[in-house]
Amino acid sequence: ITVLLGVLTPVLTVNKTHAGSFFAGQTGAVYTISVANQGPGVTSGTITMVDQLPIGMTATAISGTGWTCV
């Protein structure tokens, strides 16, 4: 039997990945940032994640399911 007392908290993880090497002037390269809840608690409301791209990289298009980006 497991008894949990108190508030179950979310445990958010951030994973950044890309395939291959990037080079100046390249188009169509994909840099992926994934955020997931690995904890026992649920999230609610707005979750804000801020990331700075690697030096020399400029975002030209951003997309995803279930979120907005500015």
Overall description:
This protein is mainly β and 70 residues long. It contains no helices and 2 strands. The protein has strands at residues 12-18, 31-37. The radius of gyration is 17 Å and the shape is elongated. 0% of the residues are buried.
What are the defining features of this structure?
70 residues; single chain; 2 strands; mainly beta
Q: Could you give a short description of this structure?
A:
The protein is an all-beta fold and 70 residues long. The chain is built from no helices and two strands. The protein is elongated.
Q: How would you summarize the topology of this molecule?
A:
Layout lengths: L11 E7 L12 E7 L33
Antiparallel strand pairs: 1-2
Major sheet strand order:
1-2
Major sheet: 2 strands, antiparallel
Number of separate strands: 2
Rounded average pLDDT: 83
Count every helix, treating DSSP H or I runs of 4 or more residues as helices: 0
Strand percent estimate: 15-25%
Helix content: under 10%
* SSE pattern, N- to C-terminal: EE
The chain-level structural class is: mainly beta
Envelope shape: elongated
Oligomer: single chain
Distance between the termini: 46 Å
Low-confidence stretches: none
Rg measurement, Å: 17 Å
